[in-house]
Amino acid sequence: MMVVNGSSVVGATVWCQTIPISANTDYLFSAWLASVFPTNPAVLQFTINGTPVGSNLNASGTTCIWNEFFTTWNSGAATSATICITNLNTNVMGNDFAIDDISFTPVCEQTESITVTVNPVPVVDAGADQTLCAGDPTVLNGSGAVTYAWDNGVTDGVSFTPAATTTYTLTGTGVGGCQATDQVTVTVNPVPVVDAGPDQIICDGDPATLSGTGAGVGGVYVWDNGVSDGVAFTPAATNTYTVTGTNSGLCSNTDQVTVTVNPLDDPAFVYPAGLTYCQTSADPTSTVNGLAGGTFSFTVVSGGPFLDLNTTTGFVDLSTSDLGTYAITYNTAGAPGSLCPQTSTLNLTITDAPVADFTFATYCLNDIDPSPTFINGGSGGIFSFVPGGLSINTSTGLVDLSASTPGTYTVTNTINIVGCALATYDDDIVINALPSANISGTTTICPGDPLPDITINITAGTLNWDLTYNLNGAPTVNFAQVLM
Predict the structure, then answer these.
(1) 228 has pLDDT over 50
(2) What's the pLDDT score for residue 89?
(3) C-beta separation of 44 from 55 below 8 A
(4) Beta-bridge partner residues of 276
């Protein structure tokens, strides 16, 4: 340590020393300074070969506080260095200081190498965004790295069921531990609450319309069993129908509705001994062959106007009724077990001079079953026929064509009522058999060949049939031969 009493001479050197050095070498130059009297602390300047180096070093205004001077210096071409310390403070009062640990040493250099390996950052792909329906599972698979970690509790490649729309972040770790991230959004669309509507009860032959709801705006409803949403159809039997409703998010749900098809009530009824009576005849009571327990009513066809009719039993009091023809209707509505009320009507005639006139026509076996057409004020009695082979209702005259044998029959309507003159009338009914037809001839020809002859054979039935047929969809009458 060197204690110095500061000089009042400007530029007075505190300390100098010349030492040999190496050219082109870096040196470390340091020293420590402390005040030994607090007044007017010293300000030291350090020079090497007459050139200031580093910053001036100010002594502390408090004694025994050491401040360090430190700088680096390159020798350049010099081979010796004159190191000097000059006090720039020239005050006589105070300006006392101590210098210690003056050091001037070359910088020692040592080298060492290290290899830095730069691993590539993986290009991680979380996959394409997904859209699914609530409750549907999905699988997220990362690619582009070695190992994968998902947030939100997802395991790579393992199925899970998202509760709501979520964006999932994938962290992929590649070779050397480098990581990168990617995201995928799984959109969860709601599943519609589809309603097929309430169950329906209809009667056989009635239409029904099924309409789904709940799939929202733009929703689509698809029914099974060939049903179209909102379009009327006629069910053949009781059935349960399933509707699939799909909303705008392509999510679907189903519901069912049962359409119960009840059979039609059978309103069939008859009166005994035909439908024509004299006022002196025995009063007739109807027999209900169908569903009993309905009600009877009437309208006047001719004559009348009064018919003494029991609306519960169908009993007719002839003696208190007016002469005339009445349409008596039986309605099953209100009858026990009635599901689909129906009506049927018979014409009952009260007369003092019955007329049995009627007429039939010519029919085919597949025509609608005919009833006699009454003419000249005629009404029904008891129907008979010759020869055998005709299927006819003896009370109403209704002919069952399909159960009859083709041919010509004479039908007789007989009205034999006590108190009235006997009335009969005959008319013929003709029932023709259905024809059968077949086409024969060459069916394969070459391009440019003339059209071959085609033979159409018609068997059974009756002559004078009207014959039409199509060739390639167009009506054609230029045929070669017709055999009957």
Answers:
(1) yes
(2) 85
(3) no
(4) 349
Q: Which two tokens stand for residue 240?
A: 């349960």
3-state SS assignment for residue 463: coil
d(CA 408, CA 392): 14
Distance, CA of 148 to CA of 156 (rounded, Å)? 7
Residue type, 468: T
Instruction: Check pLDDT > 50 for residue 481.
Output: no
- Running DSSP on this structure, what letter comes out for residue 275? S
| 132: Cβ contacts below 8 Å, ≥ 6 apart | 138, 162, 186, 187, 188, 189
- Give the span between the Cα atoms of 342 and 333, in whole angstroms: 7
* Structure tokens given for 107: 């910088």
Question: What burial class does residue 42 get, using C-beta atoms within 10 Å of its C-beta: 0-12 exposed, 13-18 middle, 19+ buried?
Answer: buried
Question: Chain-wide mean pLDDT for the chain?
Answer: 90
Collapsing DSSP to helix, strand or coil, 175 comes out as helix
Strands, DSSP E only, in 126-238? Answer: 130-133, 147-150, 166-173, 179-189, 200-203, 220-223
In whole angstroms, what is the distance from residue 248 CA to residue 196 CA?
A: 18
130-133 and 179-189 beta bridge pairing: parallel
* pLDDT score recorded for residue 482: 44
Bridge-based pairing of strands 26-35 and 2-5 is unpaired
In contact, 291 and 338? CB cutoff 8 Å: yes
* The dihedral sign for the CA sequence 92, 95, 100, 106: negative
Predicted confidence band of residue 337 (pLDDT cuts 50, 70, 90): very high
Q: In angstroms, what CA-CA distances link 455 with 156, 439, 441, 483?
A: 76, 6, 6, 8
Which SS3 state, helix, strand or coil, does residue 370 take? coil
| Both structure tokens of 232 | 């009327």
pLDDT band at 484 (very low <50, low <70, confident <90, very high): very low
Helix (H, G, I), strand (E, B) or coil at 248: coil
Contact 335, 291 (CB under 8 A): yes
Question: In this predicted model, what pLDDT tens digit does every residue of 91-132 receive, in sequence order?
Answer: 878 788 899 999 999 988 788 899 988 999 999 999 999 999
Phi-psi region of 226 (alpha: psi -120 to 50; beta: other; left: phi over 0): left
Could you report the per-residue pLDDT of 407-462, keeping only the tens digit for each? 999 999 999 877 788 899 999 999 999 887 777 776 777 887 777 777 766 665 55
Using one digit for the tens of pLDDT, what is the confidence trace for 11-57? 788 899 999 999 999 999 999 999 888 888 989 899 999 999 999 98
CA distances from 123 to 32, 65, 238, 240, 336 (A): 58, 60, 62, 55, 81
